[in-house]
Design brief:
two-stranded antiparallel ribbon; globular; 724 residues; 6 strands; single chain; mainly alpha; disordered N terminus
C-alpha cells in the first residue's frame, strides 16, 4: 500500500500541468459547428427511390472547386500559409483568435508522435529549443518525413481502414498466408510517397495492372510485384470456413469488400443498401448491386460445398514469379516426384522402400525459389452476372444489373474495353479504380485530406471521417477542406507534400492549452480550431514509446510478423496452442507494434486493452476509452515491467549511481525535460521508500529495484501517453 501511495503521489505531482483526456483541451468531435443552426439529424427517406435536386446538391457530391483565400482583417496580413487564412476567417467572424504557439518542446514531441509514432530524444528537443526558427521547423518536418519510421506510423492508419488482420476469424481463426506482405506494401508506399491515385489503383486493380506490366516486360519488376501484393486488399476480410450456406457466405464476403471500398476511399456507407434502399443517403439498392458488379467475377475466397466440416480456400495466393519461372519450378518438381515414385515402385526391400517413400514426400514438398503473396484472382475474362437480391437474400435473385457508379454522383456509365486474348480478368475493377482515383471524383480527395487533417488535429474537418453522407456530421470549414483537396490533386496526389503544408501552418503549431474562457464559452468543442487539440497516443504508440525510451526498441523493418509472448490465461481464451502461435525470439518481440501479428481471435493484451483497432470492419476513428483495466495493465503488465527494468539500466549507464543524476536523466529520456522542484522531491521520496521496502523484503540490489519502480511510475504518467 505504501508503494501505491508513493506512486500515486509521483504521478499526480508530475502531471500537475497536464490535462487528462476529459478536460476541455482533449480532442473530441465537435458537437456542432459554432456558427450553424443545430443539426437535428437527417430525414428518413421513404417511398419509391427517386433522386431529387436536393440529393444532387448535397455538399459532398459537388465538384471540388479551389476556393479563393478569405479576406482577413489587417492583423493577419503577415500570414505565409494559406491554411491559416481559412481558419482565421472563421475565428474572426466570432471575434476569436488563435492560441499562442506551443513551446518548442511541445512542437518537437507533437511532430515526432504525429509523423513517426515515436518520442524524440532529449538531444533532439534541446537542439530545436536552441533554434526554434521557421527554417529549423521545416527542416525537422522534412527529416521526419524522410524517416523509414514514417511509413510504419502512417501505414498503420491505413491498416485500420482496410480492417487488416492475418487470420480469418470465427472459431478456427485460420491464418491468411503471407498477409504481412500487404502490410509491408502499405508501409513502403507511404515511405516512398507513392501518389495516392496510384495507391488506389494498385489495391483495386493491381492484378490487371500487373498483367499489362508482365506482357510488356516479361519480368517480375518491383512495380509488377507491388501491384500483385496490393490486391491482398481483397483478401483481408473475415472469412467463415464452415458457413451454413457457401452461397450466402460468398455474398457476405463481397459485401465486406464493397463496404470497405466505400468507407476507405469514398467515405460512404454503401453497405446500408444491401437489403433495401438506403434509409438516409441517395443510394438505392440498385446502386449497391451495380457497385457489387465490379467485384462479382473475383474468385471466391472459399470453395463452394455442402454438408458438414470446414471448406477449403480458393485461389487466394499468387506466385511472385514470371510464368516462365513458375513453369520451370513445376517441371523440376514433377521430375523429382516422378523419379521418386519410380524408385518406390522398384524397391523390393521394405527398409529401402521406406527410405524412397520419405524422398517422395520431400519431392512433393519441393519448395519454390520465389515467394507467394496473398492476392486476388478472377475467373477469366467472361464476367459473372450480378442480380439484385430481394431483401439481400442470396437465394432470391431478381433482375440482372450491370456494373455502374452511384447515380447521385452523376458519373457517366462505365465503358468496359474488350479484354485482350488470353486475359485473366474482366478488366472491370480497373474501370472502378480509374473512377475512384479520378481528379473529377468529388469524394476521394476530400476523404483523404480529411483523414490527414484528423490525424494532425485529433478531429477531422468532417468529424465523421468514414461517413460523408447524411448521417455524418457536416464539415466545420468547407472552404478549407476543398482547398486541401484541390491542392492535393494539383500536387500530384503526394501525401508528404500535404503533411508539410499542414504542419507549417500556425494552426498546427498552436498551443493546446484551454485557458481562454471567452473561447471556451463561444466554442467549447473547438470546432473553429482556436487551439490545438490534446490527444491520447494510440496503443501502438504507447508500447513503442516504452521500447524507445528504455533503449530496447529493435528498428528492424518488414518481414513475417512477430509473435509476442502472452500469458497462458490469454492463450486459454482461444485454442491457439499448436496452431501457429510460436513465440518469437526476445529481440524480435521488441520490434515496433505494427509488426506484431494481428490474430482476430487472440489479440495482444496490452494493445487490445488500450483500444487497438477491431480488425473486423473499417475504422477511421478508434474509440478512446478510459478504464480501470488500462491503469492496471500499464502498472502490472510483464511488458511494462520489462521496459521499466531496461529503462532503469539505461539510466544507470548514462547517469551513474548518483540519485539526482538518475532522476534528471530518467525525466529527460521519458519526457524530454528536466523535473520540476516538486517532482524531484516526490522522486527522492519514492526512491527512498522503495529502497527501504526492498531491503526489508530481502530483495537483491534494493537500489536497482527502487529505480525500476521509479521508472515504472514515469512510464505511467499522463504526459508520457498524451500528445500536447
Amino acid at each position: 500500500m505504501k508503494f501505491l501511495r508513493q506512486t500515486t503521489w509521483l504521478l499526480l505531482s508530475a502531471a500537475v500541468t497536464f490535462s487528462p483526456v476529459d478536460s476541455p483541451g482533449a480532442a473530441r468531435a465537435p458537437r456542432q459547428p459554432a456558427d450553424t443552426a443545430p443539426q437535428t439529424g437527417p430525414p428518413l427517406r421513404s417511398g419509391n427511390f427517386t433522386l431529387s435536386e436536393a440529393d444532387r446538391a448535397y455538399w459532398a457530391f459537388q465538384p471540388v472547386v479551389r476556393p479563393a483565400l478569405p479576406v482577413l482583417r489587417p492583423h493577419a496580413a503577415r500570414l505565409t500559409n494559406p491554411l491559416d487564412a481559412f481558419v482565421l476567417a472563421r475565428l474572426d467572424a466570432k471575434r476569436l483568435a488563435m492560441n499562442p504557439p506551443a513551446t518548442p518542446r511541445e512542437l518537437v514531441r507533437r511532430a515526432f508522435f504525429d509523423l513517426l509514432g515515436l518520442p524524440p530524444s532529449p538531444e533532439e528537443v534541446a537542439a530545436f529549443e536552441r533554434n526554434p526558427s521557421d527554417a529549423a521547423w521545416e527542416q525537422l518536418v522534412d527529416r521526419l518525413l524522410a524517416s523509414p519510421h514514417y511509413g510504419e506510423r502512417w501505414g498503420r492508419h491505413w491498416l485500420d481502414l482496410v480492417r487488416y488482420a492475418e487470420s480469418n476469424g470465427y472459431e478456427r481463426d485460420g491464418a491468411k498466408p503471407n498477409a504481412w506482405r500487404y502490410r509491408d506494401y502499405v508501409i513502403e508506399s507511404f515511405n516512398s510517397d507513392k501518389p495516392y491515385d496510384r495507391f488506389i489503383r494498385e489495391q483495386l486493380a493491381g492484378d490487371e495492372i500487373a498483367e499489362e506490366l508482365m506482357a510488356r516486360a516479361a519480368s517480375a519488376t518491383r512495380e509488377w510485384r507491388e501491384a500483385v501484393i496490393a490486391t491482398g486488399f481483397y483478401r483481408l476480410h473475415v472469412w467463415d470456413d464452415e458457413p451454413d450456406s457457401t452461397v450466402v457466405a460468398e455474398y457476405d464476403d463481397l459485401d465486406d469488400i464493397l463496404v470497405t471500398t466505400g468507407t476507405a476511399f469514398l467515405g460512404l456507407t454503401i453497405g446500408c443498401a444491401r437489403c433495401h434502399d438506403h434509409k438516409f443517403d441517395p443510394i438505392s439498392q440498385t446502386d449497391y448491386y451495380s457497385m457489387l458488379g465490379f467485384f462479382r467475377s473475383i474468385d471466391p475466397y472459399g470453395q463452394h460445398k455442402t454438408g458438414g466440416g470446414g471448406r477449403g480456400t480458393g485461389r487466394i495466393e499468387k506466385a511472385l514469379a514470371t510464368p516462365e519461372q513458375l513453369r520451370r519450378w513445376e517441371f523440376e518438381k514433377a521430375q523429382r516426384v516422378e523419379a521418386a515414385e519410380k524408385r518406390v515402385a522398384e524397391a523390393a526391400d521394405a527398409e529401402v522402400k521406406k527410405r524412397w517413400q520419405a524422398e517422395l514426400q520431400q519431392a512433393k514438398e519441393f519448395p519454390p525459389p520465389f515467394d507467394f503473396a496473398l492476392a486476388v484472382a478472377e475467373n477469366g475474362p467472361k464476367p459473372t452476372p450480378t442480380h439484385l437480391l430481394a431483401r439481400g437474400d442470396a437465394h432470391s435473385p431478381r433482375a440482372e444489373v450491370s456494373p455502374a457508379f452511384p447515380a447521385v454522383l452523376g458519373a457517366p456509365a462505365p465503358n468496359f474495353p474488350e479484354p485482350p486474348a488470353g486475359a485473366a480478368s474482366t478488366g472491370r475493377r480497373r474501370v472502378l479504380a480509374e473512377w475512384i482515383a479520378s481528379p473529377q471524383n468529388p469524394l476521394t480527395p476530400r476523404v483523404m485530406m480529411n483523414r490527414l487533417w484528423q490525424r494532425h488535429f485529433g478531429v477531422g474537418i468532417v468529424p465523421t471521417p468514414d461517413d460523408f453522407g447524411q448521417t455524418g456530421l457536416r464539415p466545420t470549414n468547407p472552404p478549407l477542406l476543398d482547398y486541401l483537396a484541390s491542392e492535393f490533386v494539383a500536387g500530384g496526389w503526394r501525401v508528404k507534400r500535404m503533411h508539410r503544408l499542414i504542419m507549417t501552418s500556425r494552426a498546427y503549431r498552436m498551443s493546446s492549452r484551454s485557458g481562454n474562457r471567452h473561447a471556451l464559452e463561444v466554442d467549447e468543442s473547438n470546432a473553429l480550431l482556436w487551439r490545438q487539440n490534446l490527444r491520447r497516443a494510440e496503443a501502438e504508440v504507447i508500447r513503442d514509446t516504452m521500447l524507445a525510451v528504455s533503449g530496447a526498441l529493435n528498428p528492424k523493418r518488414g518481414g513475417p510478423s512477430v509473435f509476442p509472448t502472452l500469458p497462458k490465461e490469454v492463450h486459454g481464451t482461444q485454442d491457439s496452442s499448436g496452431k501457429g502461435w510460436a513465440d518469437s525470439p526476445p529481440d524480435e518481440q521488441n520490434r515496433r507494434s505494427v509488426y506484431l501479428v494481428v490474430k482476430r481471435a487472440l489479440k495482444v493484451s496490452l494493445l487490445e486493452c488500450l483500444d487497438f483497432a477491431n480488425s473486423a470492419s473499417p475504422a477511421g476513428v478508434r474509440p478512446i476509452t478510459t478504464t480501470a483495466p488500462q491503469a492496471l495493465m500499464l502498472l502490472n503488465d510483464s511488458f511494462v515491467h520489462a521496459q521499466a527494468a531496461a529503462l532503469a539500466d539505461r539510466v544507470t549507464r548514462d547517469a551513474g549511481e548518483r540519485e539526482e543524476a538518475q532522476i534528471e536523466r530518467a525525466f529527460r529520456l521519458v519526457l524530454q525535460r528536466q523535473p520540476t522542484k516538486s517532482e524531484r522531491t516526490s522522486a527522492r521520496s519514492l526512491l527512498s521508500d522503495q529502497r527501504e521496502r526492498a531491503a526489508t523484503e530481502g530483495t537483491p540490489q534494493p537500489g536497482r529495484a527502487a529505480l525500476k519502480s521509479f521508472c515504472r511510475g514515469l512510464l505511467n504518467l499522463n504526459e508520457m501517453i498524451y500528445v500536447d
